[in-house]
Amino acid sequence: MVLILPSKGGMILNVVVFFSGGKESVFSLMKSLEKGFNIKCLLHVIYEFPRPSPHTENAHIVRIMSNILNIPVSFLKTKKGQEKNILKNYFSSLEIDAVVAGDLYIEEHRRWLSDICNEVNIKLIEPLWVGDANKSREILFEEVSSGIKTFICGVDLRYLDEKWLGFELNADTVHLFLSEIDKNIDPCGEMGEYHTLVFDCPLFDRKIEIKDYEIKRTENFAYTVIKDFSLKKK
Asked: pTM for the full model?
């Protein structure tokens, strides 16, 4: 697994972790903590997409995750065409050495982030980077084997049926999920086929129990907005 790391010797790195609340962002955070990085904050970026982001539509759950983790989260709103400058200004305002992202193999996006980091003299760390779409399945198994449990909160209806909304993806259900989806769909949803919110993982001392949600639809996309939940001590 490729890990792009700053050459800082034995020093503790101060980092910001991109954090959607989905499984890759949580797994990247877990890897960062295992490496001994000092997590200054989590960063939830709000982009101007043509459709709503299922993660941002559930920002209240992302805040709950931040509280459980005891790591502050920043919500950064961007504007179309100004994303790079807004991110550069944000990173420049912090005393950090690096940014952690959860890309798997989309080189264009990794290079885009790397360019931003280079311009403000910080590094990009990609702890999940495999550089090969064929290895996405391995990452999914690593995630669920680590104890990450997720709730599917958004599906692109061109690839996945709406029935998957609300499905709990974990070590017990991953084989069922992979056996029923089309073989051309990325197992991790790296191309936006589906999106998740983590409700439990080894970093949590409380589990988020989702009790009720509303399904919303827009063109070829369907997503959930969580209406009721509770926290259960583990």
From this structure: 0.94
